[in-house]
Design goal:
This protein has about 260 residues and is mainly beta. The chain is about 10% helix and about 40% strand. It contains five helices and 20 strands. The strands form three sheets. Strands 1, 2, 3, 4, 5, 6, 7, 8, 11, 12, 14 and 17 form a twelve-stranded mixed beta sheet that branches. It has a five-stranded mixed beta sheet with strand order 9-20-19-15-16, with no helix packed on it. Strands 13-10-18 form a three-stranded antiparallel beta sheet. The chain binds magnesium ion (MG).
């Protein structure tokens, strides 16, 4: 099932996306919330008549750095230590206030001159969990969506902590919806800017699997329903300029599209 979150007549609702073809999609409005038992109301609205919102409002976004070897290499980082063992994953937060939905603008931050796109598969957590064993990971996942870990690369390089470089408002586009029936292990992940391909990878090239990442994260912290894990970006990251339209497409999910605007 594809679950979208949207606003209609001033109210926020979840709906199951049905139909095919961009102009024929409808939303069957959900009674309840996707993180508990819910049912479809049978009341349907055309998707192109509503405003899509971020598919979840996470309490926290936990992001993983350097999870594709080719991307780590393009930024000049090793993923193995001096003895050939994998380094522990780099883990950082993006705040809830960084999240925007598909169609929302990315506002170019005033303190950066080098904004970059990073197309990523996002995991949406379905239930409260901690210390999740590997074999239970599938039970805590609601579904998957597309993400763009928008990064002020120059700020990331000059500040030890990445809170500003990767946590500014609108630096975490998510969407367009959550796909709940998906095997995430070998999907095409692509980023285009103004229709031109910039990144193309496969989730099978992740250094650490989604299972390993969730075990690693929940060793340290409780995840709540709606929390989001960003699983790293493949090679090909590059600049975004004001006026650019950036699109992240993941096989089996859909396309997350955002335009970069000047800070007003
Ligand atoms: Mg990233």
């Amino acid at each position: 099932m594809r679950i979208a979150r949207f606003s209609i007549d001033g109210n926020v609702a979840f709906g199951a996306v049905e139909g095919s073809g961009p102009d024929e999609l409808v939303l069957d409005i959900i009674k309840g919330i996707p993180f508990a038992d819910f049912e479809l109301s049978g009341t349907k609205v055309p998707l192109n008549k509503v405003r899509l919102l971020p598919p979840v409002l996470p309490n926290k976004v936990v992001a993983i750095g350097r999870n594709y070897a080719e991307h780590a290499a393009e930024l000049g980082h090793a993923i193995l230590d001096s003895e050939g063992r994998p380094e522990a994953p780099i883990t950082f937060f993006k705040p809830s206030t960084s999240v925007v939905g598909s169609g929302d603008p990315i506002t170019y931050p005033s303190f950066s001159q080098d904004l970059h796109h990073e197309a990523e598969l996002a995991v949406v957590i379905g239930r409260m969990c901690r210390e999740v064993p590997k074999e239970r990971v599938k039970d805590v996942i609601l579904g998957y969506t597309c993400a763009n870990d928008v990064t002020a690369r120059d700020v990331q390089q000059r500040e030890n902590q990445w809170a500003r470089a990767k946590g500014f408002d609108s630096s975490c586009p998510l969407g367009p919806w959550i796909e709940t029936d998906l095997d995430p292990r070998d999907l095409t992940i692509q980023c285009t800017v103004n229709g031109e391909q910039r990144q193309l990878g496969r989730t099978s090239d992740m250094v650490r699997s989604i299972e390993d990442l969730i075990v690693h994260i929940t060793e340290a912290m409780t995840l709540l329903p709606g929390d989001v894990i960003l699983t790293g970006t493949p090679a090909g990251v590059g600049p975004l300029n004001v006026g650019d339209e950036v699109a992240v497409t993941i096989e089996g999910i859909g396309t997350l599209t955002n335009k970069v605007i000047k800070r007003g």
